[in-house]
Amino acid sequence: MKERSIRVRVPATSANLGPGFDALGIACSLYNEMTLTLTESSGLEIRARGEGAPYIPSDERNIVWKSICYLLQRAGRVDEFRGAKIYMSNRIPLSRGLGSSATAIVAGLTAANALLDKPFSKQDLLQMATDIEGHPDNVAPAIYGGFTVNTVTDGIVECFSFLPRIFMRFVVMVPDFYLSTKSARQVLPAEVPMRDAVFNISHAAMMVAALARGSEQHLENAFSDALHQHYRAALIPGMFDVFAAAKKAGAYGAALSGAGPCLIAFVPEHRRCTEAVAAAMRDAFRAHDVEARPLHLRMDTKGAHILRRRSMPANK
Length: 316
Ligand code: HSE
What we know:
By secondary structure, the chain is an alpha+beta fold. The chain has helices at residues 63-75, 100-115, 122-133, 139-144, 181-186, 194-213, 216-219, 229-232, 239-248, 274-286; strands spanning 2-16, 20-39, 43-50, 83-90, 147-153, 156-162, 168-175, 253-256, 263-268, 292-297, 305-313. It folds into 2 domains: 2-163 and 301-313, 2-Layer Sandwich (Ribosomal Protein S5, domain 2); 168-297, 2-Layer Sandwich (Alpha-Beta Plaits), CATH 3.30.70.890. The protein has 10 helices and 11 strands. Helix 2 crosses helix 3 (122-133) and helix 9 (239-248) packs antiparallel against helix 10 (274-286). The structure holds L-homoserine (HSE). Residues 15-16, 21-22, 135, 137-138, 181, 184-185, 228, 258-259 line the site of L-homoserine.
């Protein structure tokens, strides 16, 4: 019996982009990689290095393993593979709003699907990943790459992915504190006023139109939001000042990345001002006693993919 291993690379993601709460996302050029070997015998060997490694469970609680089990169950192959070796190499900061948990889920599903010779389509993986994560806006760009628009209708997820006709760089400021998605969702109200819902529908639609048609002018106000950022501002000191500083330094706009605490600025490629935007955002954070480091990223256009495939004897 030969054990097969596979290595996957999955991009970081930034969800919401301001008005597109739980609906819009982008994939970014920062990656986690993982090598998976499925074994006939039970037992887990999970090793992580890089970002957040000490906090990643190396037993059955591991989200990569849970996702693999979910897929094996769906494929009816749980009896064939009772254990795994999972080696993770992580560059995406943990619990900062860059989709690290989505990356883990997508890595587990993509790698296990490939090792089973792809019984599931990307759409199937998106549905499974959303069922596990609870919302699609990080897992969709992690799977498809680019800019993604998602809907969930009667539990069924749909995703439209495209590459914007506006070339942008992203400046992501990573503050020196963690924020769990759970706590950042707990501060949100169960119901919102109609005018706020209308505000977000119109701004999210404008963003999609501006990116699809390449209208810089229509992007300038499209990052505004009334559904989640105001409620979450108390959790991220200086958030709106940092947005204003980014815009003043040349960004189209800025937003809370996912549930935060990272803040992301969308910077026109042609203005060549990412350093100035990062410095302005860092200074604005400092004025509120928050230290933050910048990540200079671009859009990932590929989504999750297999890096290489190899076979090795089981006892090596
Ligand atoms: N749309 C989600 C939220 C993203 O804002 O809570 C969390 O990663």
